[in-house]
Request: fold
Amino acid sequence: MIPNCPEGTTFRAESNIMRKEELLLKKKKKMTPKAKREAIWGFVFIAPTIIGLLILNYYPIIDTVWQSFCKTGDFGIGNTFIGLNNYIKLIHDSEVFSTLWNSFKYAILSLPLTVSISLVLAVLLNRKMRGRGLYRTVYFLPMVCAPAAIAMVWRWMFNQDYGLLNHIFNAKISWVTDPTIALIAIVIVGVWSAIGYDMILLLGGLQDIPKDYYEAASIDGSSGVHAFFRITIPLLSPMLFFIIQTGIMGALQLFDLPFMIMDQSSRAWPKVKTITYLFYEYAFEKSNRGYGAAIIMFLILIISVITFILQKTEKKWVHYD
Amino acid sequence: MKTRMVALLLALVLCLGLAACGETTDNGGSSSGSKVIEVAIWDNNQLDGLQKIADEWSKTSGYKVEFTVPGWDGYWTMLEAGVSGGEMPDVFWMHSNNAEKYMNAGSLLNLDEYIAKDDSLDLKNYFEGINQLYTFNGSTYAIPKDHDTIAVIYNKAIFDKYGVAYPTNDWTWEDFAAIAQEITEKGKADGIFGTYCNVGNNQDGWYNLIYSFGGEVISADKKSSGYDKPETIEAMKFLAEKILPACPSPDSMASTGADTMFLSGLIGMVSMGSWNVNTFYTSDNAEDYAWVMLPYEDRNGNGTCEKEERCTIYNGLGWAIDAHTKEADAAYSLISYFSSKEAQIKQAELGVTMAGYVGCSEPFAKAFGDMDVSPFVQIEEEGTLIFRPYSKSTAIWEDDAYNALVAAWSAPETMEEVVRGIADKMNKTLADE
Reply:
């Protein structure tokens, strides 16, 4: 899916933006020539990023929308418009909904665990204590490793016959082949690899909370758990909101962990297969790009709705002061 | 508006810079003046051998041959982008998974005229199935490069340990199952199994069984599924009742691959493709391993092996040329040389692969020192070669069969029902082609 000749179009779009900017400048009339020059240079400097975004992000998005209405030919040649047919097929395809449910289950299981564990760790590591730097490094380390490498190592630890986990517990648990627990195994890896990053973000948030609040609270007789829920959580809410929102998006887009850790001949696969994998299967393995595009548009729609709802509830519990 | 001009100029320079980057990568390859033929392959194991053969050709042609080896996934991404973007290597490999797609899109050079003019090349000398694979609407789009077959590798150490006689070439699938079960029985305490056959082991596993039993996966005209043929069902039931019980549990097989388990000394014997020989040849316990021909199925019950009773699936790559190359004549001359008898023998001698040219693979049997891999070649004489089943929508029905069979592997008694279900679904897919 290499765009055919995007340079020309983006260049045009780019100069359009410039012209608009100039109109804006004229309207305001407050800008001095110097400020104007600076504004224009500002645009010149962000041009590489904007061009990159247009070519690498926006063009593919529009192309995907278009493809979802097409019966696609190989190599993007010979696409024929078939209207809503892909979407009609999608509504009647039970696999779309079962894989979507798998993605949701992953999000529901992993997100609360990730947020609560990383919050507790962040609070603990925010105190003055011996070896604090070491602990912070240890918890952050999984973030430094390549996800594929992490998945391969876990795959061997989960191996039911020769794996480390079963050896330690002296058990014979089919971690990634038993349909009832395979998803939990994936959640374990997902949570383990995500807490480091969330913890660092929350630590940053915690350090922005002035100590005075706690001092004032302790004079009034509030400390410990009470202070945590009354002071820490509300003041940390913007960061928590950010983590939850990106966490939901990330969880619903889960692809790499099941793909790397599990084998498709595992009987648990249908219980773990995510909707992004279904998209991959249609778009790249069965070369049905059109249907693949429709699946991913469906997912985008769902994520947008969830994000919209989250944004609406934001005012109720997120405090920006 | 001086500043605006400057800004525009700068942006222009940036764009030109980007475009220039694209140019330079191109210059390394297909531009005409430099007398270079760019060749793309995906298998690093074959690079040295092929470079040697290409150097021979360079001596007479005056062209330099440059190889790029992006690896399997990168290879197809590169070609795919090449077809849409117009930047292709001059010469490259084609594979049964993708050939139809590329021929259909017109991205491969039609070789009919070149072959007609070329006295040194006669397609009759090559494996028929490979020729057919690269024929589209009656025209040839790639010349056979090699072929692969299947044989059984066994671990002598395990056979010795449990006092089981080594398999010989004169064995039936019943013998195979009996030996496998015996080893599984005796090896229970040590966690050792007789054989290994997972759902995904079709080309190097149960496809061979189906054809030896007289069944088929797809009909000769590629219009209907062969999964509901009585012989196919019989073969799959044999697999479920006699072979799967001698394998590790489906859960184990889904967690650990056949090569890993075999190399760890946990599997007595397993059928393997000739493309894997090097893995075992270079492993730590290579002296414990030996190869034997695939078993046969004594369908007529006369106690001897007829040719059609011993079947191996084979597949082969083809050399193809970019439809828009500027060096079509030189590129054709190169692939014609690669596929010539002389180069095909050399390819086998160097242990690169077996030849696509019929009867030139003998040297391959001796290319691995003490390890005798002659069963791969012997089966061509004493058995039947079946081309890996394919149609336009292979990727779809193979995947469907795969998903359905996972259930049958866990509950072998449902095999017949599952296989009939596969036939129905596959017939629908084939009807849509």
Notes: Strands of chain A lie at 70-71, 80-81. The longest strand of chain A covers residues 70-71. The first helix of chain A runs from residue 6 to 28.
